[in-house]
Design a protein that fits this description.
Helix content is about 30%, strand content about 25%. The chain is α+β, with helices and mostly antiparallel strands. The protein folds into 2 domains: about 170 residues, Thiolase/Chalcone synthase (Peroxisomal Thiolase, Chain A, domain 1, 3-Layer(aba) Sandwich); about 150 residues, Peroxisomal Thiolase, Chain A, domain 1 (3-Layer(aba) Sandwich). Strand 4, helix 4 and strand 5 form a beta-alpha-beta unit. The protein binds oxa(dethia)-CoA. Oxa(dethia)-CoA binds next to helix 2, helix 6 and helix 7.
């Protein structure tokens, strides 16, 4: 195997995809007792894209990955590793290898990673370890979720928040300085009950003495206020720690790219960090909370709009079920990546 020893990590492509179908707040007010006024003022969400019954997680994840590979000027056969961050795989055994097959990335190894709405940041950091230890050169990191399958569409406290989507980035080994400048990942299982999509066992007797559990997953439940408080307190802390490790100050950050859970959380975190609102990326209004997809989806839109430019410093942070949270500071763009790295 070719080794790329002491490689840096470069961000060379991004892509995204979302189902075409969407539900706006007025549509939703005919499903549950809510209103556009309540949803928009409390969350910033105006509509959410929803996967139809014949649309798969695999399909939108693959579309996002293809768009990212095209931007990176790579083919599927160039990919060494695929990490799919998702909590809503089409198959409980994982969907990453399904995406691998659909892409035709036949030389890659693929696996799923589950860390709920922090999944993309966790996957980004995991992928970077494989690059920096010299094992892989081209890595696809995908965040994709179809939470509409698991939301209780009779519960107005949660169903208004979530939408479906996918986003991806291509990371590449470089012999230049690493562009993943610093990170901090955290979890706190003692607060696990704040946000769940839990398996509910149903006892099934096989013999007089042996039984198993054959149940099903129950719809998503959330203690919104607890999660809100957690996010506003914990997210600035990990961003500050990751900035410290990056040797950057807050004012050297060009973009704050948070998990898109609630516009009020985005504003409160920016406020605490003293980051001006024009540096805060948000696509809440269009997509709502797309879980592991939200960060790469917002990143891709900002790159394609031309807002994020090569060399820009981005502070990304995810937070959610687990509870999990984490931040990664990186510079966007490909700079002189093509040289073969020492073997
Ligand atoms: O991605 C995972 C991370 N998740 C999050 O970050 C979510 C964090 N939490 C939040 O974003 C907010 O807590 C929510 C948006 C979920 C809720 O906003 P809130 O300002 O905390 O509302 P609340 O739960 O305190 O509810 C206030 C009122 C309640 O009525 P009463 O008891 O005061 O009469 C709710 O019943 O608003 C009511 N309510 C609604 N009314 C209309 C709750 N949901 C709705 C709704 N439409 N959809």
């Amino acid at each position: 195997m070719v080794q790329y020893v002491n490689a840096g990590v470069a961000f060379v492509g991004c892509g995204s995809a979302a189902p075409v179908g969407y539900l706006d707040n007025d549509d939703l007010s005919r499903v549950v007792d809510t209103s556009d006024e309540w949803i928009a003022s409390r969350t910033g969400i105006r509509r959410r894209h929803l996967a139809a019954a014949d649309e798969s997680l695999r399909a939108i994840a693959t579309q996002a990955a293809q768009n990212a590979l095209a931007m990176a000027d790579l083919t599927a056969m160039d990919v060494d590793l695929i990490i799919l961050a998702t909590s809503t795989a089409d198959d409980l055994f994982g969907s990453a290898s399904q995406v691998q097959a659909e892409l035709g990335a036949l030389k890659a190894v693929a696996f799923d990673l589950t860390a709920a709405c922090s999944g993309f940041v966790f996957a980004l950091v995991t992928a970077s370890q494989f690059i920096q230890t010299g094992v892989y050169r081209n890595v696809l990191v995908i965040g994709a979720d179809v939470l509409s399958r698991w939301v209780d569409w009779g519960d107005r406290r949660t169903c208004v928040l979530f939408g479906d989507g996918a986003g991806a980035v291509v990371l590449q080994a470089t012999d230049e300085d690493t562009q993943l400048l610093g990170f901090e990942l955290r979890s706190d299982g003692t607060q696990n009950s704040c946000l769940n999509l839990a398996y509910q066992p149903q006892p099934k007797e096989l013999t007089d003495t042996i039984g198993v559990a054959q149940g099903s997953f129950q719809p998503l439940t959330m203690n919104g206020q607890e999660v809100y408080r957690f996010a506003v307190k914990r997210v600035p802390e990990v961003i500050e720690k990751a900035l410290f490790r990056s040797d950057l100050s807050v004012d050297q950050i060009d973009w704050l790219l948070l998990h898109q859970a609630n516009q009020r959380i985005l504003d409160a975190v920016a406020d605490r960090l003293k980051i001006p609102s024009q540096k805060v990326l948000s696509n809440m209004a269009e997509y709502g909370n797309t879980s592991a997809a939200s960060i790469p989806l917002a990143l891709d839109e900002a790159v394609r709009r031309g807002d994020i430019k090569p060399g820009d410093a981005i502070a990304a942070a995810g937070f959610g079920a687990g509870l999990t949270w984490g931040a990664a500071i990186f510079r966007w763009g490909k700079s002189a990546l093509r040289a073969e790295i020492s073997h």
